[in-house]
Specification:
This protein is an alpha+beta fold. It is 51% helix and 18% strand. It contains 12 helices and 11 strands.
Amino acid sequence: MEQPFQYFDINRLKGLFPGEFIAGIDNDFFIADFRYDRTLKMFRYPCRFDGYMVIFCLKGNFCLDINLKEFEVSENSLVINIPGNIIRVSDIKKDGLSNFRFLMIAVSKEFIQSTRIDFNKLFNESMSVLEDPCIKLKGDSLRICGKYLDLATDLLTSDLPSKKESTASMLSSILYLLGSIWSKNLSSAKESTTANSTRSKMVLDHFLRLVTEYHSTERNVAFYASKLGLTPKYLSKFIKNVSGRSAPEWIDAFVILEAKNLLKYSDTSIKQIVYKLNFSNQSVFYKFFKSHTGMTPSEYRES
């Protein structure tokens, strides 16, 4: 199935932030050091990165939307973003602007595969069950992660031979470390979470994964209810009770994100966007977009 949402690869990220780029390997791996609010301009609009991304906040704090769920990222917090997620920086706290800084490690899917690590086994279960995918590092976790970051930077900026192979081996070690940190947080989360609330979150997460995959062509609640083995009426009520937002509202929100991304990051004509997002005509799309954003698609593209 065609996924019209625009993806960013590592080369495009490096091109957008040349001043923050530290070092990297081809289109597989790079580390960047972000110190200024202006560097987040791109992330203020919804986008997807076609790879794995680790964000480590050193100073300041900001809010990050991942698949329309907002998480606060503060000092010594770590976030792992996996391919396919829709991400956006929704807010930077005013008191954090002067000292704002975070490190980003971006890794291609192919480079992860070369490490022969089962990333899904290490992280997906934890990330689907944990209430907040952003965790706060402290103690040994903070100290050891800091050393890994320093070592990665030293290795990538060196002229040593077999740098790519060395980085791949080090990345395997880092992933095992982060996996153990996530597992520890998962255990704590399970102890304080009832079976009912765990099931509720699993159903919500499954629904949101389906919406992430199909929202460009399917906006009928009945389609998602069928996929989940539920009635449309029950699903709508359930999603509203669990998330505070109805199923149609979630679907519409993803469609708006899709439209915004295409308008900002592609040369796709509005007529083509109407077709990609399965609207019957431009008039219907214009009305839908303006009712949710207060702007026409043309006004948003030029903003």
